[in-house]
Design brief:
This protein is mainly β. It is built from no helices and 33 strands.
Amino acid sequence: MTIGPITAESRGCYTAAVGNYPLGATAYLVSAKVDTTHYVEVQIDGYRKTTPVIWPKDGDSIAKFSIEIPNDGRSHTVQIVDTGRLGTTAAASTSVTLTSACPGVLKAEVVETIPNPTTREKYVTVKVSHDGETSGTFTGRLLMDGKVSGPEITLSNGDYQPRTITIPADGGKHLIEAETRLNDGWLGATAFLWFVVQADSLGGGPLPISQETSQFFPGDTVIIQAIDDARPLATDGSEWVKLDYAPKDTTGLWKPVGDGLFRPDEEGFWFATLKTNPTDFPAGSQWAIAVRKVRKHQPTYGTLNHFTMIAGPPDPVPPLAAPIIAGPLNHNQRASTWMELFGTGLPGSDLIFEVTRVTEWGNATQVPQRTTVKRDGTWRTHVYSEQSTKPLPYKILRYRAKAVMGGQESPFSNSLDVTWHYPLR
């Protein structure tokens, strides 16, 4: 055994340095003998509490750590661990169960955890309360994995507030903490709640399918999109969709669809495509697509869809229709401004633009921005062009576009000629 049994010594209750307020946690000194070189850390309920440090050091083989255990209505399992991720051999001490009965001006308890069978999320409800004995108003907040979750909680005179935190269905381990604010500072080192949640995973287990399993021939393009009655996503950049695929009933084998993240259009809807082929998607293989809503960089929602590859040639692929440029209707544009182009095309196709000169002069290097045709078959983009001064103060540029989708390219669209000129007086 290279990490010996753990011992724990209580050092009393934590109090605030200013005001001597009780903080609802017991200080402990935990220690274990480390016989050979290890990067050791303290884990509480299987979640890292301290930063890994190398031990033995300075001739001392007894690793010692000061930790706090909150009075949150639960007992906590403590170990000194080498995870093996830093190049040393994985090892662990025995475990010890610690509790706290120390008073605190604020107290937090987990009152219920409710799983969502459809999304595989978990909803953890925390009750934060004032002790009713200490005079004054105190403020706390909840954190998940070190990030603030929800607004601050201000309580006095025995008040309490419930607060629910959503645990995403990402298969990870998540930590919910609570901390107190005193004198414009947060006492993050002394949490009055420590609750570890093992999240469910979208893969490897039963999950209701949001639609019937689809069948495709190798070589088909799988179209993934929001259902018509889905709640639109926020269009301010705070909500995206994360798409991954993997062989059905596997865990940890997810691969991103395209770049993995897809931003909704201006109406809050989204779609993506996954191109199959006989090598990677052979007939008879079964696949899962995980769809997660990502809000402020955190996955918060998930559903699972399945599709199966079947034998046989793919249906004949019709040629990709050319997009149509419908406007602007006014073909005159003041130079050194942005102009909007719009039109129609095949939903889901990407549009690539080309610009050429009609006049013998003028710069034609500024190409319209690439865009994707929306669900309703419309598209919009913008282009900029600077003023032309020689030999005449205007120029005529011609714009056209072609669609790209599933490895196909369409013919070019109709052309639109635009006269860029000096400001009219």
